[in-house]
From TrEMBL:
The keyword Disulfide bond applies. This is Peptidase M14 domain-containing protein. It comes from Cherax quadricarinatus (Australian red claw crayfish). Residues 118-415 form the Peptidase M14 domain. Its cofactor is Zn(2+). Coiled coil: none annotated. Belongs to the peptidase M14 family. One of its GO terms (biological process) is proteolysis. The keyword Repeat does not apply. SMART domains: Zn_pept. Pfam families: Peptidase_M14, Propep_M14. It is found in: Secreted. The lineage of its organism: Eukaryota, Metazoa, Ecdysozoa, Arthropoda, Crustacea. Its main location: secreted. GO terms for molecular function: metallocarboxypeptidase activity; zinc ion binding.
Length: 436
């Protein structure tokens, strides 16, 4: 990669005529050495991609550098979004309008009410969890997994029917580990809402025990609400002792101790900075300790955006896991139910993380599968497929949460042999060989 070093060392910031932050589509696979080098140096932010292209966000001050780098390596690109921050401004205006209207309605109803028509910050989410805990009777227990870097609580909400006989299938749903993926906590809180308010979901509590993590990265998530520029923050808010505020934080989804470092960065300025060591962060340490204490988790789901894919291990290799057929079969239950709920509008792709998204590890789904022995472990990349990316409009929240809930409910039905999705039940195998 001598040419990368040469271009970076010779680059001098010029006067740019276009000062917008842009989203580019580069016609190379996501797992590309040049793109990885640019991301590791902090010059691009990889938003998504697959085996044919990569989506990157490029700031105006480094645009000439990135263009020169792509020309040098004969890579073509197109501008997909001319002004990413214009989408952020549009989102914030819409949020304010909805909040103004909602606050007027709530004065006559209940201040702790939650809705899924707008995005909510940590104060709203914590208030809703408190309300659920207060009104949920013996069905709800709020657990503290950790205190974050800035002292916020990493909460896990346990929901089950204490009066039903054991044993039960144990379900872990993780939301909000990447700060800017706002649709993830929205889905997680909606699942929680259904479990405590919807009769068909309450029936599931007789045979299931749920652990919902609405926001695994509370500091980073709250930070994304503070300004337009902060909206695209991904990591937690660890102080890496750098002079540049951009270099704060650790990617919590690269900090788990299974093949730690594969496809992640050692550069604190990178969006995929893995941290100084596995479980260096209080958020990941606390969550893994709680998962271990629960034991025998049957289904693990971490909610991300974007891409409309349901991914199973491994992320660190293209080799298929031992029970790949069963993982695909249960994932198809999800995809089919979402397609039905959306009347064919929302299609999910199914596959291994490594083959579909490029090699990377230190992620929760690989750790849950390989270290904890969870037989069904998934990353669900929520909508859309790239037009808005992490800035999914609030007009899409309601459809996304309801469709995703339908998919997850179908997965649970297949695992527990209950409901409409019990047909052709997905059998849990007797033996797994997890470790790579």
């Amino acid at each position: 990669m001598w040419a990368v070093t040469a271009v970076l060392s010779l680059y001098i910031i010029g006067v740019l005529t276009n000062q917008n932050t842009q989203l580019w589509v580069v016609e190379v696979p996501k797992e590309n050495a040049v793109i990885n080098s640019l991301q590791d140096a902090g010059h691009v932010d990889v938003w998504g991609g697959n085996s044919t292209h990569t989506q990157v966000v490029v700031e105006p001050e480094v645009r000439e550098l990135v263009e020169e780098m792509l020309r040098l390596w004969e890579m073509t690109h197109t501008v997909e979004v001319e002004d990413v921050m214009a989408l952020v401004k549009q989102e914030r205006r819409h949020m304010q309008e909805l909040k103004d209207n909602t606050s007027r309605r709530r004065r006559a109803v209940q201040p702790q009410a939650m809705d899924w028509n707008t995005y909510h910050n940590m104060n709203d989410i914590e208030g809703y969890i408190g309300w659920v805990n207060h009104t949920g009777g013996g069905f709800v227990e709020v657990l503290d997994a950790a205190a974050s870097v800035e002292g916020r609580r990493v909460l896990v909400v346990k929901v089950t029917d204490p009066n039903s006989p054991q044993p039960k299938k144990k379900i872990w749903i993780e939301g909000g580990i990447h700060a800017r993926e706002w649709i993830s906590p929205a889905v997680a809180t909606y699942i929680l809402h259904l479990l405590v308010t919807n009769e068909s979901w309450r029936e599931l509590l007789k045979v299931t025990e749920w652990y919902i993590v609405p926001v695994a990265n509370p500091d980073g998530y709250q930070y994304t609400f503070t300004s337009e520029r902060a909206r695209l923050w991904r990591k937690n808010r660890r102080d890496n002792l750098s002079s540049d505020g951009r270099c704060k934080g650790v990617d919590l989804n690269r900090n788990w101790n299974l093949k730690w470092g594969v496809g992640a960065s050692s550069n604190p300025c990178s969006e995929t900075y893995k941290g100084p060591m596995p479980f260096s962060e209080p958020e990941t340490r606390g969550l893994q300790a709680m998962m271990k204490s629960i034991g025998d988790i049957d289904l693990f789901i971490t909610l991300h955006s974007f891409g409309q894919t349901i991914l199973y291990p491994w992320g660190w290799t293209r080799n298929a896991p031992a029970n790949a057929k069963q993982l695909k079969r249960l994932a198809k239950k999800f995809a089919d139910a979402v397609r039905d709920a959306s009347r064919g509008e929302t299609e999910y792709e199914i596959g291994g993380s490594g083959p579909l998204y490029g090699l990377a590890s230190g992620a929760t789904d690989d750790w849950a599968y390989g270290e904890l022995g969870v037989p069904f472990s998934y990353t669900i990349e929520l909508p859309d497929q790239g037009r808005y990316g992490f800035l999914l409009p609030e007009t899409r929240i309601s459809s996304t949460v309801t469709e995703t809930a339908a998919g997850i409910q179908c997965m649970i039905g297949a695992l527990t042999n209950t409901g409409l999705c019990a047909q052709r039940r997905v059998r849990q195998p007797d033996t797994f060989w997890f470790r790579g």
